[in-house]
């Protein structure tokens, strides 16, 4: 089970997340996460981007068979988000 926080600027402050790491050597992709006793995972990804991002989860670290999310901001400021 996965719980996603909206990346909208009007959201209240993010919850305290215990784990944190940068996912790239340039420190452009910051990932924070935690889980509760019911194994509900909360995560946040902060990425310096040109307007869109794709992020995936896989038990084996490869794209085929992974769960992916794509989201971004259109030029008019509206947000899109898709999970596959």
TrEMBL record:
Q: Which GO terms describe its cellular component?
A: extracellular space; secretory granule membrane
Residue intervals of the DOMON domain: 27-84
Name of the protein: MOXD2 protein
Biological process, per Gene Ontology: dopamine catabolic process; norepinephrine biosynthetic process; octopamine biosynthetic process
InterPro entries per UniProt: DBH-like (IPR000945), DOH_DOMON (IPR045266), DOMON_domain (IPR005018)
Q: Which terms in the Gene Ontology molecular function aspect does this entry carry?
A: copper ion binding; dopamine beta-monooxygenase activity
**What CDD domains does the record tag this protein with?**
DOMON_DOH (cd09631)
Please report the organism this UniProt entry assigns to the protein.
Answer: Onychorhynchus coronatus
Question: Where on the tree of life does the source sit, at the highest rank?
Answer: Eukaryota
């Amino acid at each position: 089970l996965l719980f996603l926080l909206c990346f909208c600027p009007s959201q209240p402050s993010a919850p305290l997340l215990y784990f944190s790491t940068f996912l790239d050597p340039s420190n452009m992709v910051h990932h924070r996460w935690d889980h509760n006793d019911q194994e509900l995972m909360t995560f946040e990804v902060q990425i310096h981007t040109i307007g869109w991002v794709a992020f995936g989860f896989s038990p084996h670290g490869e794209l085929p068979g992974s769960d992916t999310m794509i989201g971004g901001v259109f030029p008019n400021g509206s947000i899109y988000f898709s999970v596959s």
